[in-house]
Design a protein that fits this description.
It is a single chain. The chain is α+β, with helices and mostly antiparallel strands. It has one domain: Gcn5-related N-acetyltransferase (GNAT) (Aminopeptidase), CATH 3.40.630.30. The protein contains six helices and seven strands. Strands 1-2-3-4-5-7-6 form a seven-stranded mixed β-sheet. The longest helix has 14 residues. The protein is globular. The relative contact order is 0.15.
Length: about 170
């Protein structure tokens, strides 16, 4: 298994994995499969074209196939450059239970905190996703907020938890 920065050459694989994610775990994402299929180019794809030390997508490759991903994005505004947001952690069901989500997150956290200006990493997770929440907590993320019915599919609401990881003190020096 190789974890590496994805770039524009990975666009088709990225798009396929993203659609697979929406199909296999629809409750975990804001967009529906139909909505995402209708979008010719997702805004997050710009991270493939211009990865930076604090804004990128990592991919887990297994035999040339993309089986997992996680994104990190830092806003360009001066007052938000201290904060990186984790985007779209996903591992194909066939590769779950092997620690790949943890590896992707650890790599994203390590890369992000190499940028001295980054003071905090944040993410949002559907409150029913106990496995993801347990992973994030084991990595040091703490709940910082709760948004009831942040997503609503027409029949059911999904609450979101905000979670945050503060830069370790040993890295602040």
């Amino acid at each position: 298994m190789i974890i590496r920065i994805l770039d524009e050459k990975d666009r088709a694989r990225f798009r396929k994995l993203r659609l697979d994610a929406l199909d296999s775990d629809p409750d975990s994402f804001m967009m529906t499969l139909e909505e995402e299929r209708a979008v010719p180019r997702m805004l997050i794809e710009q991270l493939l074209e211009h990865p930076r030390p604090n804004s990128f997508f990592l991919g887990a490759m297994d035999g040339g196939g993309l089986v997992g991903m996680v994104g990190a994005n830092t806003a360009p505004q001066r007052k938000r450059r201290h904060l990186t947001e984790i985007l779209s952690l996903y591992v194909k069901p066939s590769h779950r239970g092997q620690g790949l989500g943890r590896q992707l997150m650890l790599d994203a956290i390590t890369r992000t905190f190499r940028v001295p200006e980054i003071r905090r990493i944040r993410l949002q997770v559907v409150s029913d996703n106990r496995g993801a929440i347990a992973l994030y907590q084991s990595l040091g993320f703490q709940e910082t907020g709760h948004e009831p019915e942040a997503y609503f599919d027409g029949m059911r609401g999904f609450d979101l938890l905000d979670m945050s990881l503060v830069r370790p003190q040993t890295l602040l020096a």
